[in-house]
Amino acid sequence: MISSLILKFNKTNLIKNNTTNFFLDNVLNKNGYNNNNNNNRFASYKSFQTLKTDYKFSEEDEVFEEIKDFKKYEDRGNYSAAKSILNRSLSMVESTVGNKHPITLNVLFRMVNLELIIGDLSSAERYANQILSRLNNNTNLSNIDIDSQYLIPTLNYLLICSQYQGDNEKCFKIIDQINEISKKKNDWELLISNLLNKAIILSLDCNESADQIYKELIELSNENLNESNKLNESILSNYACYLHSNGNNDELAEQLYIKAIKLAESNKNDIELVNILSNYGEFLFDSDQFDKAEPILNNAIAKSELVYGRYNPKVGTILYILGKINRDKRNLAFAEGFFSKCITIFEDYKNQTKRKEHERQLLNQNDTNYHYQPGKRERELRINKEVDIDFGNVLWDYAQMLRDNGRLKEAENLEQRARKLNSFEDD
Prior knowledge:
Elements: E1 6-10, H1 22-28, E2 42-46, H2 65-75, H3 79-96, H4 102-118, H5 121-135, H6 151-164, H7 168-185, H8 188-204, H9 209-224, H10 231-246, H11 250-266, H12 270-286, H13 290-308, H14 313-328, H15 332-364, H16 378-404, H17 408-420
Antiparallel strand pairs: 1-2
C-alpha cells in the first residue's frame, strides 16, 4: 500500500537524467529553486494521509481463493502473475455479483494498487476512474456515494498519478473534489490534510501561493484540531521547509521548527521528529550556526537509529550534514570520519538492494507460465534515487576536501565514483 510521500531534493546537485523514476523526473526536477547563500539548501516535504484517506486491506477482504493466490505472487514480486490473477478475478466477480458490488470494487481497488506498484500510471488511473464511475450514478459529484470506503482512497490514488506525471492542474481539481466531500461530511481532519497536500505540491514548485495556504492551515488546525493531532507538527514542519528552501523568512522558519519539534516529541511522533530534526539541523548549518546544529543532528541520528536502524540511509544523510559541518569548522579528521561512515552506509544499502533484487529473480525463475517483471515500486525507487543523490554528493564533497589537502589521487577516485551516480554537474 502506498502511503505518505516523503519528498527530498538537493537544489544545486539534482540534475535531469533519463530515468524510469517518473516521480523524480516529473516532480523533483523543477526550475526556480532559490538559494540565498553558497551552501546547498536541503528540504524534506512530507504529505499527510490519515487512516480515512488510506484504505487498509484486511482479512475480511480475502473473499475468495484467487485473492490469496494474487497476494502470494505480489509478495514475491511477480507482478505479471499477480496482474493476470486479478484480471481473471475481476471478470469472474463482474459476471457473478455485478459491476457495483463491494467485492467487485475491492478487486478493482487492488488493481489500482498493483498498477501503481508496477508503475503503470495510465492503467492505475483508468481503474481508479472505473471505481468512481461505479460509485456514481451520474458524473455530478453531488450524486456520488460519499460514504463509500473506497471514495477518498481512490481520489488519493488519482492525486498520486497526477502528481507523478507533473499535472498540477489535475492535482488541484482532485484536491477540490476531496475538499467538497470533506465539507459535506464535516470532516476537518480530512480537509486540513488535503490542503496540506496542496501546499506541499506548491512548495515543490517554490510557488509563493503556498505561503497563504500554510497560514490558512495553521488557523484551521488551531480552530478545529486537538493539539495532540499529528497533523499539527506536519503543517509546521512543512511550512518551515518551505520558508527555508525559499529563503523568505529564516527567523519564522526557525520558530516553526522549534514548535514542531516540541509537538512531535509530546505526541511521540518519532517518524516525523526525525524529519524535523534533520531539516532543522540542515537549516542551522545553512545559517552557519554549527555549534547549535551538532546536538540537533546527534539527536536526529539517535532517533533515526531507533526508528529505522543504525545502517539506514536516513542515518547516512544526517551523518553527511555532520561531515559538512566539521569540514567547514576545519575539523578535518572528524569530517573524514563522518563522510566515510556515511559512504559505508550508502554502499551497504545499495549492495542489499542488489542482493534483494537477485533473490527476487531467483524466487520467480521457475514460474514458466509468467514472465517476471521487476516491480517499479514507488517507495523503493524513490529511496534508491535519493540514496544515489546523497551518495554522489558526499563522494564529491569528500573528494573536494581531500583535493584541498593535496590528496589528489584519492580525490580523483571519489570524483569518478560520484560521476557514475549522475548526482551532480561540474561547475
